Give the backbone structure.
Amino acid sequence: MWIYEKKLQFPINIKKTDPKAAQIIISQYGGPDGEMGASMRYLSQRYSMPDNKVAGLLTDIGTEELAHLEMIATMVHQLTRNLTPEQIKNSSFAPYYVDHTVGVWPQAAGGIPFNACEFQVKGDPICDLTEDMAAEQKARVVYDNLLRLIDDPDIVAPLRFLREREIVHFQRFGEALNMTQEKMDCKNIYAFNPAFDD
């Protein structure tokens, strides 16, 4: 189904370790609005989309989110590789280190582990596409927040790229929502709740 190109969607070459930056960036790996939840959301929702174009869009964006997950993991890895014991002790990264050393593990910046409850699949195209638009906006806000807190240009450049992709995905989901709504009428807008159509 997929062809994996062994290169990142955007080059990442972080020169300085920074456990504080790693601790907040990891939220886009396994946090409530992160790339793991996004990829699982879209790749799961595609099955209940009545329109093949919309299902294809969910597959494409879900696949791209996997690429973004890889970018975030690369950033966390580069920010934590070669950390000294002093750097770990003098940062808020120490509790993470105790459990995971410097392995990349899905959690939010606050330490809450990834959970499938981070994303939603309802099986209703209008509901799911509206959820997707909101998810992209929430992810964009997280990138905005990260960009406010980080000034290393090696980190900022890929974060800006990822933020831009959230905006593009939001627009594509808006188009998909319009396309889906245009194909519906008052008799099928609540296809799974026909009692509401009376």
